Amino acid sequence: MTETHAFRVAELPQNAATAFDFSPDAEARARIAAELDLSALRKLRFTGKITAQGRRDWLLEGQLGATVVQPCVVTLEPVTTRIDTAVRRLYVAESAPPEGIEIEMPEDDNAEPLGPEIDAAAVMIEALELALPLYPRAEGAALGEAVFTEPDKQAMRDEDTRPFAGLASLRDALKDKP
């Protein structure tokens, strides 16, 4: 996405929130849809504010609204999904880079290291990607059961793979015996 909504940290006011509200135009939405492998991105709006947290940290809080179209994982028919989600990112000035092979995840997974800019458009795209349905499914679409086997052999079905499925019928047969 070539359009940027980056705020230079050095220019943000310490004593007041910096509000933002943007809706990418059709061309920008088409680029975002292509980047995220969507069939279409009909609507997209990101509103919020950036406020100082202490002397050096910054908090971005916003609301993301979007209407996306993805192919159904079963039928490939278009599936339209409405996304409305809150977005929160805490930019921490003194964030030490992870060292070593193993790193421990911080308690706040919304904390990020503070750079010279806070790019609200990049946050919008990231939040949209995280909110997308992983397996969109059209209404009534079902996978069904696929059965494959060699000719003249009995196919193994899902029911045959359940080890305790036959025990219920065995129990019932034993109850019936006098």
Automatic annotation (TrEMBL):
It comes from Pseudodonghicola xiamenensis. Residues 150-178 are annotated as: Disordered. InterPro entries: YceD (IPR003772). Residues 150-162 have a biased composition (Basic and acidic residues). It comes from the Bacteria. This is DUF177 domain-containing protein.
